[in-house]
Amino acid sequence: MASRSAGPAGSGSGAPEDAYTAEPFLPGGRAGLPGLREAAAGCRGCPLHRDATRTVFGAGNAHARVLLLGEQPGDQEDRQGRPFVGPAGKVLTRALDEAGIDPDDTYVTNAVKHFKFEVVPERGKRRIHKAPNLREMTACKPWLDAELRVVDPEIIVVLGATAGKALLGSSFRVTEQRGMLLPFEGRGESVLATIHPSAVLRADDREAAYEGLVSDLRIAARAIG
């Protein structure tokens, strides 16, 4: 990736790639979700904005007790501008309902707000998901921090390894920590790790993977009473 400034477009400071950050694009003061969403639409804090269609900010109940954190938008999310509207989102909505969590009472977002992909000509020029790297997750973290401040959930459910690392650090391992209620930075929230719903769609045994996701979400449901 070519280097560009971490600041607003056109600043031309030539900052190194590891200096990318969304911080200069956040609105001043203690903006609510509408203000954050509007500001995020113009974010140029890392190179991912260049190829993505739009910023995909979080959505849902602004006072949700449960915040669901995924990795990044997918193809359908990038096209529609809302998180979890593709096949994985349908799996998540069904699993939440089955676990006893009203999907309408949650807030859903991603650690990275732009779709990272590669185009594969031999697959009909389909846009194929690529996992964001640590620099990209770090650059986007100010948006997540702002969302957490505003929503102030009781529990954060991290969906998959990338979301867990974005929130809890590079030592996080979803295979070791899934289904466990973990403390979060000395704050009131707890963190629960589980698989990303897209893992259900990729699994050889989809039924077993889905039941595992529901089982983890039931822990979150019990935690909030």
From TrEMBL:
Residues 57-218 form the Uracil-DNA glycosylase-like domain. Keywords: 4Fe-4S, DNA damage, DNA repair, Hydrolase, Iron, Iron-sulfur, Metal-binding. One of its GO terms (biological process) is DNA repair. Residues 1-26 are annotated as: Disordered. GO terms for molecular function: 4 iron, 4 sulfur cluster binding; deaminated base DNA N-glycosylase activity; metal ion binding. Gene3D superfamilies: Uracil-DNA glycosylase-like domain. Pfam families: UDG. PANTHER family: TYPE-4 URACIL-DNA GLYCOSYLASE (PTHR33693:SF9), TYPE-5 URACIL-DNA GLYCOSYLASE (PTHR33693). Belongs to the uracil-DNA glycosylase (UDG) superfamily. Type 4 (UDGa) family. This is Type-4 uracil-DNA glycosylase. It comes from Streptomyces agglomeratus. The lineage of its organism: Bacteria, Bacillati, Actinomycetota, Actinomycetes, Kitasatosporales.
